[in-house]
Each structure stands twice: as C-alpha cells, then as structure tokens.
C-alpha cells in the first residue's frame, strides 16, 4: 500500500514540475498573462499537492480498545455478581402463584406486561459492561431451560443466583474454585439421579393440574390443554393462535391439513363456502410438472368409467393440461380437483410420500421408473374425504393404512432425535401430527393486545410444562422437591474425594432452598420459616401451597411440577454457576463517546414566529 502511494506522489511531483516548465515557456513567449491567471494556476498546484499529501490518511483502520478488570480483592467478581443479582431480582418478581408481572417498554408498539421469566431476562441490558456480562451469563441458564423444557426459566435464574451467592462467599474466604466447582458438578449429577427415582408417571387427570400451576393457577387454561391432549393424544400436536374474540377457544383439525388450496376456483363444488369437497376420493400424486393433458388420459378415463372423484396433487400443472381438467369438470363428465404439492424442494417430496402412505397410493416420479402416461388406477390412493379451500386442503384417510402410518411415524421420530436445528425438529413434528390424524389448535383471546401477549406467553408455558410432564413424569411442586433434594446432599458428600469438593456440595445444599423462599416471599410470608416447617415433616408430598397459604399434601392439592423442568433448572443453573466461579478476569470493550451532531446556526426550523 505504502509503495503505491509513493509512486503516486512521484507522478504528482513530475506533473507539477512539468507544469512549471510550461508556465515558464508561456510567460516568455507572451508577457500579456494576467495576474489573476497566475494566481489561479499557483493555487491549483498547491491544492493538488495538498490533496496528494492527505490521501494516505484516509485509509486508517481503528480497533476498539479493551479494558481489563482483574479480580483484585474480589472486585471483578463482585461487579459480575451485582449484574447477576439485578437480573435475578427482576425475574424473581414473577415466581410463584402470587408472583407479579413486569412491564417492558416497547419503542414501536404498546408496552408488554409479562409474567414469563425468559422474556423478562431477554430485555435486560445493563449500563455497566461488567455487570451486563454477569446478567448475560445467568440469562443463558433461562434460555437453555426454555429451549429444552419450555418452562421453569425463573427457577433456573433464582437457583443460579443462589449457587453463585453461596459460592462467591466461599471463594472469597480462600477456597479453591476448581475443586469447589467439581464438587458442585458431582453433587448435581447425583441429585439428577435422585430426582429420577422420586419422579412418577403423569396420569391424564393430573395433566390439568400441571398446566394450571404453570399458567399461574389458571384452571380454565389447564382444562383446555388437558382436553386438547385427550383429543389428539399425548404425542399429538397442540398449537397456539391469537384469537379474534375475548374468549379462549379450542378446535381440532382432523386428518392431514396443509397450506395449499385448489389451483383454479373452477374446481369448487360448494359456491357458497367456495370449497371443493369429495367423499371416497382417489388421489393421483405426481412429483413433477404435468405439462401435457394426454399423459392423464388413462387415469381420467378410468375415473369417468367407474364414476369416482379424483384429486391430482402435482408440483405444478401447466395451462394446457389445467384447461382440459377444468372443461371436463364444468361439463360434469368428471369429478376432479387439483392442487400444487405442499412444501418446497426436498420437503415437497417428503410431504408427497407422507400423503402416499396415508392414502395407500404411489408417488409417480421418474427416479422409481413410473411415468405418468403409463399410470393406471393401481397407483391411486384412497381418502375417506378431501376438502379444498382457497388456502387449505384437508385429507382424511380411510384407516386402511394404519400399520404403514405407524411405521412412518416411528421413522420420523428417529429423524427428530438426529436433527440438530430447532426449525427442522418443528417441521418433523408437524409431519407426525399430520400423519397421526389431527392437530388441536388453542385460540387465546383477550380484550386488549397487551393482555393477549401476556396471556399467550402463560398458555405457551403451560403447554410446554404439560409436554414435559408427559416426557419424564412429575414431582411435587412449589419448590418443595428442590428443598427435599437438599436432604440427600449429606449422603452424596460421603462419596466425594476431598474437603473442598464437600464444600461445593454444601453450596448446592444451601442454594436449593432459594426458590421456595422466594415463592414464600412473593406470597408475603417469611421464606426461612416456611422452609423449616416443610422440612419438619418426613412426608415427601407435604409442602407449602402459596396460592392458599396452607401446608398440605401438594400432590393431592394439584401443585405439581414436571420432572424435566426441575432437572433442567438444576443442570443449567449449576452449569452457569461453575463457569462464573472459575472466572478471574473480565475483558470488555471501551465505549467511545458518540460525537455530538453540530447544529446549523442558520437553521430556524425549530422556532415559531
């Protein structure tokens, strides 16, 4: 870069010297040059030199400077801990049946009022960069728990705060953080194993309680989710939508439904509803474009001869072929409808295979050696009913292919286990739902948009908690299971190698009481008194019901937590606490002050007259 500029400067000087020679020759040949011209030429030369001198400076690259915070006298860790506590105190407000809401400012829309821990945590951005790093560390525990279990995000943050608070005290007293974190890790693993032993499988009647507790003791939501689960099965798909009315509602879509409507409105059989409906319909599935109507003659003649309706699902149907189908439909000689295959690329082929398995048909594609012009009625699938609207198509199978469908569902479940991306898993789950014969849709209603957003988040948490309960079972709720696990720590300590690892186990033991104490505090009761009363009883089902302010059998009272949620809280909180306690220096970017825009003194736009 430097040599290039040198060359340019040399050329510039050469040009300027030649200019001077030319000026000299011109002045000797003619003495009538005006003083103005000489001034302008000399100023032009100076301007050119000035431009050449400035050019190299325009290619500077600036790197942002970093500021280092060393942990002298525990100062860096204290700052990180302040950030952790700010986030945990904010999120902790929402914990328990008597937890409050948090109002979040939104620049471009109405403010959000939420009761969901992870949504609140995502909004936190602290001014001090070191405190902000502390808050971000703990936010990871909430985000990971939300990804895996979909609920329990507030408990994760509160538990992480407890582990960090107790751990920092011990490290500040001179304990070795490496051995302490090892003790925390071993204790957590042992407690997860204990948790699985005390977990029990959820019964259908208990699904209502699991959902209601997660939605803040809202039994209307609990009953709706339990009803949805009973209609589509425990492994069925339940989705949420924003409703148009103020009331919540539930409806079930039977059969396989996808977002593709008829190609032409001329296929409509019910002009009022603008839908095409056929019963005992045959399906022709084609994984390519249909360009020529002559290729369809064999199949269509058989349909006319035997009088059955036929639905064509193809990648696309070109104008000539489509016109032939429409004309025959309008004449009444053929009961027919056509639509484009759902999905794109590879997913389109997978959807066609799914439809083929549901209906017992065969997909016509060149790779398997079946051509459209040679196709006959043996490749057609059967459906009990098909309904096509402008935007949606529903295919209800006749039940004759149940065994093949179950094999296909098992195959897709294996693909879900291998899949890494969340989007891919979601799409595979959709395919399972479509094949297994139904999707339940819960429409969440509210009077205002702000209430709708808050309500939808609560219902989403309740739905995720119910799914988690189905996956791994249930335990006693209200923070009591974590408190009971603390009594198992003494036995785990005996298996640890040295004293400092045992100190790590004690840190976990003390932190496990934090969630229950906060639930009690939010209910207006002394947390320490509550935890003492709960531990005074040997009955594992006995605990504090914050909703009714009673000590009772929590399983019978319906205060239940999914085992998966409690496990994720424990694992992710200890993971964050371990990395936090091992930190000894913080590196942050130094923020450059933003330049103040200079106002135009002649601009009078801000003043009225």
What does this structure look like?
It is a single chain. With 609 residues, the chain is of the alpha/beta class. The protein contains 22 helices and 18 strands. The strands form 6 sheets. Strands 6, 7, 8, 9, 10, 11 and 12 form a 7-stranded mixed sheet that branches. Strands 4-13-5 form a 3-stranded mixed sheet, sandwiched between helices. The radius of gyration is 36 Å and the shape is elongated. The model is unreliable at 1-59 (pLDDT under 50).
Task: Briefly summarize what is shown.
Pfam families: Cpn60_TCP1. This protein is an alpha/beta fold. Helix content is 53%, strand content 15%.
Key descriptive features of the protein:
single chain; 609 residues; alpha/beta; 3-stranded mixed sheet; coiled coil; RuBisCO large subunit-binding protein subunit beta, chloroplastic
Described by the principal axes of the CA atoms, the overall outline is elongated
Query: Main β-sheet, in a few words?
Result: 7 strands, mixed
Number of E strands: 18
- What integer value in Å does the Rg equal? 36 Å
Alpha-beta classification: alpha/beta
Strand content bin: 15-25%
Count of separate DSSP helical elements = 22
Mean pLDDT: 83
Terminal CA distance: 56 Å
Low-confidence stretches: 1-59
| Residues in helix, % | 40-55%
């Amino acid at each position: 870069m430097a040599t290039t500029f040198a060359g340019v400067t040399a050329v510039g000087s050469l040009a300027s010297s030649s200019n001077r020679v030319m000026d000299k020759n011109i002045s000797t040949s003619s003495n009538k040059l005006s003083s103005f011209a000489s001034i302008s030429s000399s100023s032009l030369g100076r301007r050119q030199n000035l431009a050449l001198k400035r050019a190299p400076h325009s290619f500077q690259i600036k790197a942002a400077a970093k500021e280092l915070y060393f942990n002298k006298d525990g100062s860096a860790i204290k700052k990180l801990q302040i950030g952790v506590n700010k986030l945990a105190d904010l999120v902790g407000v929402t914990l328990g049946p008597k937890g409050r809401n948090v109002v979040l400012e939104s620049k471009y829309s109405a403010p959000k009022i939420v009761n969901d821990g992870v949504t609140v945590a995502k909004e936190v951005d602290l001014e001090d960069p070191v405190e902000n790093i502390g808050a971000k560390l703990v936010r990871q525990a909430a985000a990971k728990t939300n990804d895996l279990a979909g609920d329990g995000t507030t408990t994760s943050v509160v538990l992480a705060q407890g582990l960090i608070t107790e751990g920092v005290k011990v490290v500040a007293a001179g304990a070795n953080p490496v051995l302490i974190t090892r003790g925390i890790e071993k204790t957590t693993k042992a407690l997860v194993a204990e948790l699985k032993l005390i977990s029990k499988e959820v019964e259908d009647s208990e699904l209502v309680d699991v959902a209601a507790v997660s939605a803040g003791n809202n039994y209307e939501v609990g009953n709706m989710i339990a009803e949805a689960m009973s209609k589509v099965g425990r492994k069925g798909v339940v989705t949420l939508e924003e409703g148009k009315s103020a009331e919540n509602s539930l409806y079930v879509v039977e059969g396989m439904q996808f977002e593709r409507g008829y190609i032409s409105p001329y296929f409509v059989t019910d002009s009022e509803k603008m839908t095409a409906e056929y019963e005992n319909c045959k399906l022709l599935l084609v994984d390519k474009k249909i360009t020529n109507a002559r290729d369809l003659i064999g199949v269509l003649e058989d349909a006319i001869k035997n009088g059955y309706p036929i639905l064509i699902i193809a990648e696309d149907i070109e104008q000539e072929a489509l016109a032939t189908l429409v004309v025959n439909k309008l004449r009444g000689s053929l009961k027919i409808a056509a639509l484009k295959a759902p999905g794109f690329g590879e997913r389109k082929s997978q959807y066609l295979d799914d439809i083929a398995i549901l209906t017992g048909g065969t997909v016509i594609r060149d790779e398997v050696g079946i051509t459209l012009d040679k196709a006959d009625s043996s490749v057609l699938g059967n459906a009990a009913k098909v309904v096509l609207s402008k935007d949606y198509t529903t295919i209800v199978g006749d039940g004759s292919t149940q065994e093949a469908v179950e094999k296909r569902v098992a195959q897709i479940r294996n693909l879900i286990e291998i899949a890494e991306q969340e989007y891919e898993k979601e799409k595979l789950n959709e395919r399972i739902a479509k094949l297994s014969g139904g999707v339940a849709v819960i429409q969440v209603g509210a009077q205002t948009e702000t209430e709708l957003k808050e309500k939808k988040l609560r219902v989403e948490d309740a739905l995720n908690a119910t799914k988690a309960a189905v996956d791994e079972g249930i335990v006693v709720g209200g923070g009591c299971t974590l408190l009971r696990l603390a009594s198992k720590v003494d036995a785990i300590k005996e298996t640890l190698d040295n004293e400092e690892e045992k100190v790590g186990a004690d840190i976990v033991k003390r932190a496990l009481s934090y969630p229950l104490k906060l639930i009690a505090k939010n209910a207006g009761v002394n947390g320490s008194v509550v935890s003492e009363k709960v531990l005074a009883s040997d009955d594992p089902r006995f605990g504090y019901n914050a909703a009714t302010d009673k000590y009772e059998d929590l399983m019978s009272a319906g205060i239940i937590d999914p085992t998966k949620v409690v496990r994720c809280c424990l694992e992710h909180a200890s993971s964050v606490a371990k990395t936090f306690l091992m930190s000894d220096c913080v590196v942050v970017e130094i923020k450059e002050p933003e330049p103040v825009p200079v106002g135009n003194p002649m601009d009078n736009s801000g003043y009225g007259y």
